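anyone else get weird line breaks when pasting these?? whatever heres mine. first is seq + tokens for prot A
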Amino acid sequence: GGRCALALAVVSALLCQVWSSGVFELKLQEFVNKKGLLGNRNCCRGGAGAPPCACRTFFRVCLKHYQASVSPEPPCTYGSAVTPVLGVDSFSLPDGAGADPAFSNPIRFPFGFTWPGTFSLIIEALHTDSPDDLATENPERLISRLATQRHLTVGEEWSQDLHSSGRTDLKYSYRFVCDEHYYGEGCSVFCRPRDDAFGHFTCGERGEKVCNPGWKGLYCTEPICLPGCDEQHGFCDRPGDCKCRVGWQGRYCDECIRYPGCLHGTCQQPWQCNCQEGWGGLFCNQDLNYCTHHKPCKNGATCTNTGQGSYTCSCRPGYTGATCELGIDECDPSPCKNGGSCTDLENSYSCTCPPGFYGKICELSAMTCADGPCFNGGRCSDSPDGGYSCRCPVGYSGFNCEKKIDYCSSSPCSNGAKCVDLGDAYLCRCQVGFSGRHCDDNVDDCASSPCANGGTCRNGVNDFSCTCPPGYTGRNCSAPVSRCEHAPCHNGATCHERGHRYVCECARGYGGPNCQFLLPELPPGPAVVDLTEKLEGQGGPFPWVAVCAGVILVLMLLLGCAAMVVCIRLRLQKPRPPAEPCRGETETMNNLANCQREKDISVSVIGATQIKNTNKKADLHGDHGADKNGFKARYPAVDYNLVQDLKGDEATVRDVHSKRDTKCQPQGSSGEEKGTPTTLRGGEASERKRPDSACSTSKDTKYQSVYVISEEKDECVIATEV
């Protein structure tokens, strides 16, 4: 029992160590029993060879919850332990493992729950006669008992205590330490350092998590981003990084991304395009202050913005143009008179007068007509205000008629014509194909209708072109297209033209109009096939005999058909004897009530293989006494619903049919001549033909005709099977 208790204690201790949060440690330091007496003051019985009153001492330790009145009785709620024999009477116990490997000092009691801070401790010193007998139930073995309760805080320091009972002394110490990774007053705080995806921290003295450098958060799982990284617009996966969220950019993710295509704009939030001053439009690409940004006006002009990237320039005097880039030439209207030369100035001009003239524009003359100032026969006249004027003859100009007029200087002739100055006029000598005063009229070369055979003429410069109709070619569409131009002959044949047609000279082994057919081996020599001769039908005389024979044959065929139709109709209209009942005693399926209704009801003749015999019990009877049952006797396996031609008895069958003609008339000759092959049930190998039924039905009917030959009456009964 003691061994089992010790084993259970060890197992429970191991299990508690697995789930423990702390350990209560008890260190037995010294035990003194000077007289070697038991608790009942009896002397301990020593073993063989031992001195008298020598107590072999072992201990039982019981740790339980706090009790105001400590009871040494079980249960030991926090744990218990029984030591081996540790000494005799008085002895000291060193730390660590002793001589017995089953004992280690201090004694450890693992806790799997929060340390409550109080406890009750029972230590019993017991005597045993044998080291193997460690039973604790016998009170006679008790040497001394310690029962106490204490308050104990968690810590590494040992609490010393001494218990004296008058005859014995026990010196011991105890403490409660937290297990690894457990912290706090009750060892209830768990903290295990880690550096993985679930945390990056170490543990402080009280079990608090101390984050590694670069990490933060409750479990140190949040990296500390780059200093300055925007908390809202940036994030990081590792310490020191700064990754921007969508719509933000920059080292610290504090710059918003503008709207794509934004040119002269800013943003406060992503995808904005707030235009800068002077710019407008969706992409801020329209210059609203074009004058300031581009300064388009020149020569000191004043620029005015008109919005949407447009402007106007107010030019200074003497300049013009959209940007005032053009200077106005005040001398352009030739303000100087009497041959004075003009000098352009800024917004002005000056005239340099020839000798004899003066004034702002040289309008005043110091000469008179008496001085003969006019040249080239010009007529001079004095002006009332002073000066003179010259009237120039034809071909001259100038104030004094000193300039000869050149009419060809302006190149009045077009299209390469030559200009001839005639003095007082000019003449244009035109190139070929042009006409008119200035040679600007193109001569119509199609006026003479040069294109033949309906060709379309197109006029050119001293030339024309013709668009020819099909079948003609050439400059004037006068040449017919060759029949052999498109190579109509095949397989290496030679094409020859003959008037308005072509013929193919075929190579050996080929024939046909275009030599497209492969022919059997022919005698040597080329074969000439004339397609157009066949097409044009230039052969012999018309075959009148064949045509007449064909017409006569058709007429004879029509007359024969008409005669046949008349015969059939006459035969159908013949008078018939009075109708007699055709019903036998045996009822029929889908019966025809009267055999005289053949005209309204058609019965189809079908193969015997398609008919199911439903009248096997019927017998064939006749008027002849000897042959009344002869048909059935000679042909026992024949289907009695079918009437067939049998070998060796055709005459008898014909007699039977002739006797039935008075009651059932055939519908037409065509039905008598036709027959369908059938197979006899008796196993005959050959196929025989049977005549059509006496009363035939149409092939379109939904019913099949069968024959019922009555035993009692010699009559034909028509039955129809669905």
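and prot B, same format (seq, then tokens)
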Amino acid sequence: MKPFATNRDLRKTPTLIKISAVILATAAFFYLGKHLSNDGYKQLVFFSSSSSENSIPEVSISPNSNKTFNLSSIIPPNHTEIETAQPIPSPVTATETKANPPPIPIPIPIPIASPPPPAPIRTFGVLDANGVMSDDFEVGDFEDEAIEESRNKTEIVELRNDGVSRPRVRVKKFAMCRESMREYIPCLDNADAVKKLRSTERGEKFERHCPVKGRGLNCLVPSPKGYRQPIPWPRSRDEVWFSNVPHTRLVEDKGGQNWISRDPRDKSKFKFPGGGTQFIHGADEYLDQISKMVSDITFGKRIRVALDVGCGVASFGAYLLSRNVLTMSVAPKDVHENQIQFALERGVPAMAAAFATRRLLYPSQAFDLIHCSRCRINWTRDDGIFLLEINRMLRAGGYFAWAAQPVYKHEAALEEQWTEMLNLTTSLCWKLVKKEGYIAIWQKPLNNNCYLSREAGTKPPLCDESDDPDNVWYSCSIFLYTNLKPCISRIPENGSGGSVPSWPARLHTPPDRLQTITFDSYIARKELFKAESRFWNEIVGGYIRALKWRKMKLRNVLDMRAGFGGFAAALNDHKLDCWVLSVVPVSGPNTLPVIYDRGLLGVMHDWCEPFDTYPRTYDFLHASGLFSVERKRCEMSTILLEMDRILRPGGRAYIRDTIDVMDEIQEITKAMGWHTSLRDTSEGPHSSYRILTCEKRLPRA
């Protein structure tokens, strides 16, 4: 017998023998696997696939495919459901090839009975004195404020934008208010609050009495029937559409004094001849007379910002605009209640305001000239408290012009009034500069020297050094307005406020009062002032180029969060023919003195309350960073509904704010019927700010 071949010999064995050995080994392993798997999962399905993309996978079926098994024996007791494969009904035949593949097994759930759920655990109620949960308690009524605030919000969903999940509020479409509210001013038309006043003898009913928070405007104020797009400036100075302000009371009362008229041949318009009660021959001639009386009254240079008290239809301020003077025209909403509405429709700065018991919403040393022509105010009553308010707002070295009957008539009662006025102005250290015809002009001193040299006990006294003459709003803690004070506001010892450059240099000169503002900066204040001006100058320049602002009919503009007034200054620099009222919110630092020192107009306001103006009075509203601040204090819908009230149909609003408030703002503006577009800022798409451009559409004819 030959010995066994060595390893070297085995490698020389023919290939056929090697293949046979491999096949036999494979068959042996398969046979063993089949017989050793009696206690396992017996249905085996084998797949084979080709590398070709269009090929259909082949399926081989285990021989156990037609057998059934008791699955409960292999399911753990704590499982309630298990997935298994659906048995294939028959083995694969020769015809079930690539053209006719057999069905592929699909896992299906097999429900298994589960134990009954445990008894529910009580997790509601209140804790009693022993710390035991109890449901023995009473449920009170819903608060009206909560119902009012949630009336229009229907749901909050998660909006995923670029992978960022943010809440989004869906808002129902706002309904129109009743027709009787088309000229509604919420804080001046609050009849319920006026009825509760203890007294109205000092004019309290003409002051602000705002609705309770949560019970304000919740609808859209309608326009008058036949409302038309306003006549553009400068034509609007001389004529406006009757349908936009459909009131004839002033024509009947003041037509003979050249205030306003209505041509019987063309009843579609009101005409404004430019006269007034004391200047029936026209405002231009009247202004020439004032400037001739006092040579230092140089309109458009030293005199840049003026206040017209009891303004009528604001012809005094309308004609000063052509002399580069901004005039704030104020009058109460009294028997001639539409005079401020006419002024704003003409395109002249104006606000509804009254001399009664509270300070007006303007800072100390704001106006270079204050004017009263037959303004129906008794300046000497109550120890001259109204003239003391004039003194607070008048810039050191500024002028007060009074045109009234006591100046030129020689009746006994009127002469007595003139004597009282002389005594009062003398005690205020005012100098009577000129009295000519029916006009008298006084000048306020430049410092406190005269006040300090008066005899002890002289009235009115100087205000305490602790008094802040720029505090014109109410205290947030006790919600009381700042009342008029029977004292003389002190002039700052450093002369700030009185020493401002002439126009136009003052527009970009950081004023001395910049250092008195309370906010988180000191050394870099002048740099912040200049940086804000540069910023808005660039932004407005971009708006003009990209958004065609010169084609927009901008006239009455409201900047809702003005800062140092940089936006208004930029509009002036780019020579857009409009005026801007810069609003300083009470929620931020009081920059109002700086705005007036620059030669601009401004006012203090709380945007959680309505604004003191008529509906449809502004062509453009600008809100930068307003909502991200004020949403902590009130509902954003409160502010937006007020914006809709004061914005003219066809007017626009630009809202520049952080991304996280834009979704809700868009929903509310759409519910108000505005047409909106969300745009990137000049910083690009990765900036945290966006600009929402809005347009309030004209009412359908």
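btw re prot B: The first strand starts at residue 45 and ends at 48. Residues 27 and 33 are 10 Å apart (CA to CA).
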